[in-house]
Design a protein that fits this description.
- The protein has about 375 residues and is α/β, with parallel strands linked by helices.
- It contains eleven helices and eight strands.
- It is globular, with a radius of gyration of 19 Å.
- The N terminus is likely disordered.
Length: about 375
């Protein structure tokens, strides 16, 4: 299995991915490094500008940005089997968009400063077992920090804390918050609604125990990417229904929010990379006990009761089957009286959010999302 060494990246400082990830969780060692906001050298900027695609734009994305295309070309060069042809265990061994970004950085001598945060791990009990949390704490700042509970992507089937390590670090670094990244249990080993229950249990634990790790229990936000965006919204809904303190704000990056796989973006991006329609069908079949559960409002969020939720920021990508999900969710939230800020980024694919060292739109999206959370947590 290809080792995945996740380091925070210059400027944006994170790689995130969902389409194909490792299944092993690494250690939670503390580190002390330079800030991700340090300026890149002139040589680094020049190297990024040298990254260009080798082929014409693909048929599935004629308007793809050149840097984004270069990453997708590198990912395709590994020759891995498509995820829908694999078991979950096999899929977790595939190369990743993060591998592609890291290889492009190495080939072009682009340095990767790491975030100025310490990390530590904590196991907590949940119904039917235990899950692991990884906490990222700014090395400098107040004695008490706001908290962001973060849920990684992976279609509820693949990915782990290591895969999204840099995402969590970047959010901690740029918001001045403690980020608690949640290793919820994955399918098909743990079917629906185990991931959803674990996500809520982690939020509940953070509220009760924030003071023990220098967190402020009155300033807690939620964030997530793709499947993790779904978990963030669901956790807030369950907190509302259980009369638990609702989060201060939510950041949902291209969230899984609907059960309709014939939306405009599903049709336009059925063959997109790194996420396509067959892969989404594979995720659903692995996570759900039966296809009838796709109509459950925890999966089909656009049909859920969204009233009374905190402010939500939604980020979507043009070349992504889930673009319509995110846009429709934003409309439904507004109709329910929820304050919503949303941005779509043209010419980029699912998973672009963490590619800020190479893809300019990713740098912008991270800055926007982190800024929204930081403002809400003041």
């Amino acid at each position: 299995m290809k080792t995945k060494l996740f380091i925070a990246m210059a400027i944006a400082g994170l790689f995130s991915l969902e389409a194909c990830q490792s299944g092993k969780t690494g250690s939670d060692s503390a580190d002390s490094t330079m800030s991700a906001t340090d300026t890149m050298t002139n040589d680094s900027v020049a190297a990024v500008k040298q990254i260009k695609p080798k082929e014409p734009a693909p048929a599935w994305a004629p308007g793809i940005k050149p840097e984004m295309q270069a990453v997708m070309e590198k990912l395709a060069s590994y020759g891995d089997k498509p995820i829908p042809e694999l078991t979950a265990v096999q899929a977790r061994k595939n190369h990743t968009p993060t591998d592609a970004v890291m290889d492009l950085m190495k080939e072009n001598n682009i340095p990767a400063p790491v975030m100025n945060v310490d990390t530590m791990g904590k196991d907590i009990p949940v119904s039917g077992g235990n899950i692991h949390l990884r906490m990222y704490t700014p090395k400098t700042g107040a004695s008490t920090f706001p908290v962001i509970v973060y849920y990684h992507g992976g279609g509820f089937v693949i990915a782990n804390l290591d895969v999204y390590d840099a995402s969590a670090k970047a959010l901690s670094d740029q918001t001045g918050s403690i980020v608690v990244s949640v290793a919820y249990r994955l399918a098909p080993e743990h079917k629906f609604p185990v991931a959803h229950n674990d996500a809520y249990a982690a939020y509940e634990w953070v509220l009760k125990n924030a003071a023990s790790f220098k967190g402020d229990p009155k300033r807690v936000a939620l964030a997530g990417e793709s499947a993790g965006g779904n978990l963030a919204i669901n956790t807030a809904i369950k907190a509302r229904d259980n009369k638990l303190m609702i989060p201060t704000a939510i950041l949902a990056v291209y969230p899984v929010a609907g059960s309709d796989m014939n939306t405009k973006s599903y049709q336009a991006n059925a063959k997109a990379k790194p996420l396509d329609k067959p892969m989404m069908m594979w995720f659903v079949k692995n996570y759900l006990n039966s296809m009838s559960e796709a109509k459950d409002p925890r999966i089909n969020l656009v049909a859920a009761n969204l009233k009374g939720l905190p402010p939500v920021t939604i980020i979507t990508a043009e070349i992504d089957p889930l673009q319509s999900d995110g846009m429709l969710l934003a409309d439904k939230l507004r109709a329910a009286g929820v304050k919503v800020d949303d941005k779509n980024y043209d010419g980029v694919t699912h998973e672009f959010f963490g590619m800020g060292a190479i893809v300019p739109q990713a740098k912008e999206a991270l800055s926007y999302g982190a800024g929204q959370l930081k403002s809400a947590l003041k």
